[in-house]
Design a protein that fits this description.
There is one protein chain. The chain is α/β, with parallel strands linked by helices. 45% of the residues lie in helices and 12% in strands. It is built from ten helices and six strands. Strands 3-2-1-4-5-6 form a six-stranded parallel beta sheet, with helices on both faces. Helix 1 packs across helix 4 and helix 5 runs parallel beside helix 10. The chain starts with a strand and ends with a helix.
Length: 217
Amino acid sequence: MLKGAIFDMDGTLFDTEKIYWNCWLETADFFGLPRQPELPGSMSGSGWESMPAKLKKFYPDFEDVNAYIMHVVTTARSKIEANLEIKAGAFEILNYFFDNGVKIAIASSSEVAAIEKNIQRVGWEKFFTAFVGGNQVKESKPNPEIFLKAADALNLSPTDCYVFEDSFNGVRAGNSAKCSTVMVIDCKQPTDEIRKLCTGVYDDMFGALEAVKRGEI
């Protein structure tokens, strides 16, 4: 078992990625635009600063991209505020790592304030040594910066850390950081490319936990 574990938040610890996923599509209806099925996957794991350019690729003639993004964010956050669901097995794997002396961090494209708020809502403060948010890095996933910062905050080498992710960009970032990258499937099934970047791919966090216990990852 490795010395550190770094978790993405949305879609990995909390069942919130599907909310953002739906909001990217529903916001097209709000602005009278055609839905683009590939848009949510493109945005998954991205930092806010990269979103306008990505959105423009799908809607090149739409001018108010910032209004579109803000509508997604405010709508999604309102839904999450009303109902924050924990992903299956998330508590169990955090508790297992904590009990076995593994240092734990969150590295999420969300801002640190949002991370802290969610963790406080479910009473998980004791598990975590560090939070690194998208507002603390210059380059968003798939750049490895966020995971390198998280490993540094744990005072560990990236090679001594797991990364648990659900998004393709997150997997790419974890692999580039030289962490042992584990994909826990959420909204998208992994491609062959993504599977090759992972030390393990599991349907839920229970599967990942059992693999850790067996020493498979």
